[in-house]
Structure formats: C-alpha cells, structure tokens
From TrEMBL:
Keywords: Amino-acid biosynthesis, Pyridoxal phosphate
Residues recorded with modification N6-(pyridoxal phosphate)lysine: 345
Keyword rRNA-binding: no
Residues covered by the Threonine synthase N-terminal domain: 239-312
GO molecular function: pyridoxal phosphate binding
Record pathway: Amino-acid biosynthesis
Protein name: THNS1 protein
Gene: Thnsl1
Amino acid sequence: MFHIVQYQPLRLITQNSLSSMCLKLMLSRPVAFAEIRKSWFSNHSLVGNKNIILMGPPGAGKTTIGRIVGQKLDCPVIDIDDDVLETTWNISVSEKLQDVGNEQFLEEEGKALLKFSASGSVISLTGSNPMHAAGMQHVKKNGIVVYLDVPTTVIMSRLKSMKVDRIVGQSPGISLKDILQFRKQFYKRWYDIRVLCGGDIAAEVVAEKVLDAVKRYQNSELETFISTRSSRSGRSMEKDSHKYFSDIVTEGLAPDGGLFIPERGLPKFTAGEWQSLIEATYIERAQVILERCIHPSDIPASKLAEIIGTAYGENFACSKIAPVRHLAGNQFLLELFHGPTASFKDFALQMVPHIFAYCIPRSCNYLVLVATSGDTGSAVLDGFSRLHDTDKQRIAVMNFFPEDGVSPIQKSQMIGCQKENAWSVGVKSDFDFCQTAIKQIFTNSDYTGFLTVEYGTALAAANSINWARLLPQIVYHASAYLDLVHQDIISFGSPVDVCIPTGNFGNILAALYAKMMGVPIRKCICASNENNVLTDFVRTGVYDLRGRKLIPTFSPAVDILKSSNLERYLHLIANEDGQLVTQLYNQLENQGHFQLQKDLLEKLQQDLVAGWCSEEDCLAAIHSVYSTTGYILDTHTAVAKVVADRIQDRTCPIIISSTAHYSKFAPAILRALRIAEINQNPLSQLHLLSSYSPLPPVHWGLLETLKKKGNEDHQVCAADMSMLMSHIETLIQNHFM
C-alpha cells in the first residue's frame, strides 16, 4: 500500500538531488535504492519496496507522467533515457543509436538495464526497453509494470509534432507505423496493468489513472461478489467469507439460490477510453474490457491474453470475430455465429473452459453441469473438449437437453460434439425442467457433499447463471458499437438501439451491462417468440407463469418461460435489495407469479421495450429478407427482425443480434424459402441450402460435425430428479474413478 501526500516543491528538489547522486552508485553496481533513501522517506512507501514502472511507445508521455506520479507520491523519479543510458554512455541516446545501429543499440540498452537497480521509485522506461527480454525480466522483478496504451494514430501525431524522425528499429522501407505496431507484442508481454490514454487526455489525468490502477492492483479485496439474494445486513456480517472471481467461476450458483454479481458493480469507461478502442481489433477490445472486469490476482493480464487468443484465434471462421453487416435502412446485423458451433454461445464458451481450468484448485475433479434449450449444449461440449489433455482428465461436462425440444440439426450437433470428457443426455421434458433440476442439484448440499466425499468430485455450472459466461457477451455488444463508429455510420456518443432475441435474458443483460459501462445504447429491445412471458413482463411488470405451457417453436433457443438472468437485472434496478429479489422469486416459485412495484417498472422501461413474433411472421421475415437481399436470417434473428420493424422509431441505427447460423434450423429455413420437398436427413438439408449460394454460406463447422459417423449414440433420461442424479454418478465413476 502507498500513501498519497501533498506535493512539497522544496522537498522534491531535495529528492531529485538525492536521486541523481544515487544513480551514479547504481550504475557502477546494483544498489538497493531503498537503503540509500531509507532515513529520508521511510513514511512514504509506494507498494512496499516495489517500483512503479511506466512502459509504452515513444511519445506515450512516460517521462512527464512519471514526474507527476512521483510528485504525488513524494518519491524518486528515474527516467531510463536521461538518468541511466545517457549517464552510462556519456552521449545522447540519439547519437548512440546513430553510432551503433538498431541491433547493437538494443543489446547495449538491455545491458544497461541489467546493471540498474532501484526500489520504491517511479521508473520511466524507454520505448524500446521491452524488446530486451533479460533486461525486462530483471527490472520487472521488483516492480509493477504499467502499460500506457496510446492509440498508434495518436502516437504518430505526437512524434510528428515533436519532430522525431527516427526510432529504434526504423530503416528504409519500414514505416513508423509498422514499427509501432510491431512493438505492441513486446509491451503486451510485460505489463501488469494497462492504462488507456486517448488523444486529448492531459498528463495529470493519466497520472491519476496510473495511481488508481496501481491501487486496484494492490487491493483485490475490493472486487468481491455477492448473491442477488443477500441482504445488506447479511453482507456486513459475512466479511470473512468474501467471494472472488476465481471462486464464483467454479461455484456458479450462490448457496442461497441466487446469482453472483460484483458487489461494487461493473467498471465504467470514459468516452475517451472507448474512443481509444475504435481502431482496435476484436481481440484487443476483449483484452482491454475483460482486464477491467477480472482482477489480475484472479487472472493476470498475460494469462488472460493467452486465453483470449486461444478462444478467438483459429476457432472462428471470420477474422473480425463478430462482424457488423448492414441489412437495410437503419438496421445492422451483429453476426454472432462464426464460432465452431455456429451460435453466439461460442463467444463465452470458447473462453470459459480455459478460465475455469485456470481458476480451479488442482486437488479436486470437477463435473460441469449445463442445461440447454439448443445452442448452449454443443458450445459447452466443444469448448471443454478443446482443453489440454491434462485438464480434460480432471474436468468433464454433462449436458442436459430436452430430447424432443431442439432442432434435428442441433440435436445431431450436440451428440456429435461428445468427446472423452463431454457427454449429452436427452431429457424427456422441456428446457425449464432441465434448468430447474440443475439449480436444485446445486442447492442440495447433501448430494453435492456426497459427491465430494465419495468421489472427490465437485460440481460446477456453465449456463449463463455463471458470471464468467456474461463477460464475453458484454465485449461483442461494445465492439458492435465501436465498429459502427469505425465505419463512419455514427460518431462516438450518438445513440443506437439493440434488438435481441431473448429467452434466458443473458444476452440482453450483457447489452444492458455494456450500456452501464459507457456504451451509448439507448434502448434494449427484448424480442420474444410465442413464449412471450418476457414481453408481457416488460410491458406490465407482471411475471406470470400461471396457466402457461411452453410452446415448441422454430426458434427453440428462446423457448423459455423462466428467465434466470432476469434476477440479476431486477437486483440492479432494485438498488441491490436482495431481500426484495428473494421475496419476488419465492413468490414465483410458490405461486407462479410476481409483480413489480410501479417505481421499479418505470426504471425497467427506461432501459427496455419488448415485442413478440408469431411463427407465421418469423417465416415470412426470412422469406422477405432473402427475396430482397439474398441474405438468410436464422429463425431467432428473424424474430428480432420482426420485433425491430414494429418497435423501432428510426431515429437512430438499430443493431440486431444475429445469434445463430441459419444452417442449424434448416427445415424451418427451407419451409420459409417455400421449398416443397425436404429430406429428413440433416446433412442433405444443408447440401440443399448450399445449392442456393446463400449469404452467408452454410456453416463449415456444422457440415464437419454432421459428416462424422456414430452421431446417433447418446443417453436419454426420464424427467425425474433421481434419474438425473444417477446419470451424474455414473459419469463420475466412468471418467474420474
């Protein structure tokens, strides 16, 4: 922990004199800097004896910001260029570079860094220091590396105004922009903390952001999680039982039956920080956003980068990951189906298994349980089957789906995605039964305790009740907005609406969270199919399941009556009143309905509007869009398109979430396109669709999965809790014992 003290100019002059005097000693041999200044500054510790090390490209402002941070902390400031290199070489850095050339310069610069030692100081690195691995390893041992992340276009403008015409690595035929882009890989390798720095941000503001970031880095206890059903008084009594990100990833559901949420809410980004991401790739945006949502003590930035790169690297067919495509008028499609299993679930479930494997203790086996209404199952199975072999030995997944409540291709896909650590079980019931059964299993402490004691196996959840599932979804809603800005469709700050086919409320909740974090989303439009309980709720404030029966539709992923993630949103608008949330959900469980107070309904309707779509209108929309554009919507996207057409006021762009690839619902698509003879074989259906040369093409991953032999084998279970628990035990015995 460090203490911020008032800036005292006379004292600073004395400090800087001391710094200069001591640097000569440090450069002759490594000296513990804290020992020299011990009697002077023992009351003003930074972070113990650690240094704050500022890193970034030339022109990032490291020297200026370092001085301001040093002033605020009342501690020595060391500039590697001025205080180390030029003192060592007795010539200017630019002269040295001209004399020895790029490669030799990097080597000699690195050697100088290896001889350098300091503690309790603010250190401003050169722009090229991170390119010398040994030197960086040495300096990082006793410091927190803060990356000043400035957009390349801003750096180039600054260097031009500074009349800098050459930096390390530049040579004929290699542009300044190329060098700056090349260097990013080295900056990303070494930093502990990132600070986003836009174009017009003052150095004083950046310095404050650096201090805030270091405080956050040192105080993981501030980022704890609570249950949506916990009371404020209960929280104060449970200080010793804090839950952190790595805890809630493995636990999934809170012990009281509620859902985990961050106690202090989500981080807010300034307009300038969002604007600094306009030129960034999808993977870069994901890294920045998730770093702010996941504390580095849970997952360090370097590990998070590795996980994101693995999730969104070669597994997605489109290099843009989540491209935004203009559909017609003011409507844009956010294509979320380019992952390996052809639905938006891939965004979370290519990442969550790796997060899970990193966070869980090595001393226990884990069985991940998931219930699916269609797309989640194959995405979970595929994601967990891509783990390293050592992780697959201790982590398995069991997927429960309604045997007769998913499309034929979805079913074939779930069965085809089964691997040595991943299984599917068809349940003779609907999705709501599957989801409720899993919740009951998690809250049955006798049963979960038995599994732990008897088999050394803990249960975990991969449904959107798991907080880690929601975070990657926030990223693509934010990225879609930034893409519209990047394409000059809108200027930053202009509002957009989003329309999302909604069943379990996870996807639309992620959009609401993106809005809270500073993305200028005006309204979130909740699009239902004929299972329109959410539409009625948004319009009236009454959540009523009495007399409702689930209706199988062409859009099975939103064939849901009990929307789990709605609980998180109600907790938010109820000012974190866990007692009220508990009361509402107890009433829903016991009486089949609840009603929001008027003030809460008014809050809800500031964020949400809703509509629903009939089966006939869904198919008509698919036919109409294909006839006019050649583009094929899937059935869920068609539901959203119909609702968007009815509700939007056309005063701003509307982004429609295209949550699945049409290939998954071939029979309905062929019917919508009015093709009379439909072969019942799923593979034949996809070949028929492909013959129409549609936009986008038939999904590659589905074709590969359906071509595999032996896709017919899977277990089927009655809608009985004891039967489900028996299946779980059998799997544990077969895989872990």
